[in-house]
Amino acid sequence: MRKDYIYDKHVEYFISKCEGFLSQSSDKKIDQKHENLLEEFKKIYKKDKKSFINNLRNWSHHGDLSCPPQITFMHIKYLGFIKTIFTFIKKKIKFFDLKFFNQSFFDDIEILKVTGSLEILKKNPVHKTPQCNDFYYFEKTSSNYRWNRYAYLLNKIRQEKLITDNCNFVDIGSFYGGFQSYLKNFYPKVNLILLDFNHQLCRSYVFLKNLFPGSQHTLPDEIIDLDFLNKNQNQIVYLPIEKRSLLKKLKIQLTTNFFSFGEMKREMFSEYFKLIDHSKYIYSVNRFVSSPFFEKTYDSDLDVRDYLKNNYSTLYFDIFPMHHYLNIKRKLLNRYANRPIGSPYFELILKKNENRR
Prior knowledge:
By secondary structure, the protein is an alpha/beta fold. Among the domains are: 7-12 and 27-55; 65-159, no CATH class. The chain is built from eleven helices and twelve strands. It has an eight-stranded mixed β-sheet with strand order 5-6-4-3-7-8-12-9, covered by helices on one side. Strands 1-2 form a two-stranded antiparallel ribbon. A hairpin with a 2-residue loop joins strand 1 (136-138) and strand 2.
């Protein structure tokens, strides 16, 4: 049966070590999407704290991105009979036309196979992780859309040898810590620095504390500087956005950002890049054009050219293959239809030029 994970106590402890947890406010640099996420979180927390705790991983604005409907013995074992049936019916109704949704998921699985990423997924079945209520079971493992993505990303990091087991790894926009758990399973001594809003760091802390209780978890109020990371291993640091300037003095092996750079306003994006422009490697997956003229998706005018830096060489560049063929039914140009997203995503790995600062 599913392991009994701890949620309530971990949430309370995080809040006790995070001054201004609920009062964290945005500023003019922050894009509209993240302003809305912050305000929605506050409403949920004030209205029903228990709901926040019970939905750290999947809530109204963020989640595991679902997967095709399925009923197996493993679902009944981990979710229970009633919940399994209810979820199956709910998906059948929600995704009435499942053709495009299912095809894209299975395309992702094939990409994992041809890239060698499936072996990583098999060592990290999603149904055994905290608060997982949505998974597709196959080949003695399990996954969902988000978990497929994480397996691919970690495999790319391993293939390109971007990190070692004794280094500092920074992820900007960590959500609930799923990708970090993948990384930690393969590089147990690596120092993880997660940079995000308070409520997202709380989600990550609960998730990672349950999976890695033996690691040293450093919470927002405990962070004065990051010098201790140069002398210690197996650290997980939850760095709030207000303390992001501390990254400037940290020796960083790899910095990652998946999707959120392309959602930022130019001013904020430029600030983040200045903070990490000494990182040995930068691995980014973002939109070719943040807001195409025909579908103003985000409060941003960035495009792929903004990610190419003079003091970095391009180690890898291609279209990001995961979810690439997903067609979403939505209203655009005054009519509803299944369409791909407004802009595809690129995958970019940069390496710092050794002779330049």
